Amino acid sequence: MDRERTTVDRLVLRIAAAEQTKSIEQVTADEAERVTTSQRQIHLPRFADHEIITCDPQSGDLVTGVTSRDCKRPSSTREMSSPSI
Fold first, then answer.
1. DSSP, residue by residue, 53-71
2. Does the pTM of the predicted model rise above 0.85?
3. What's phi and psi for 73, nearest 5 deg?
4. Per-residue pLDDT tens for 46-57?
């Protein structure tokens, strides 16, 4: 699996746009907030538990394609937090 870096905010915009079948620029603040909540409370912690993603503590970026051999998983979901949109 290739590694890819993103932020929670960028990930949220991509997901919200795909769910609403619109461009990222057309995503409303309410749509982004709904996706942000579900990602932070449900999906991102699960992905981290299964070592699908990790968070770079220096930059706050999410890193995909990481396995336990490559990088340790975050010690808490707090590390995945970023300012809301």
1. EEE-TTT--EEES--TTT-
2. no
3. -80, 160
4. 888 888 888 776
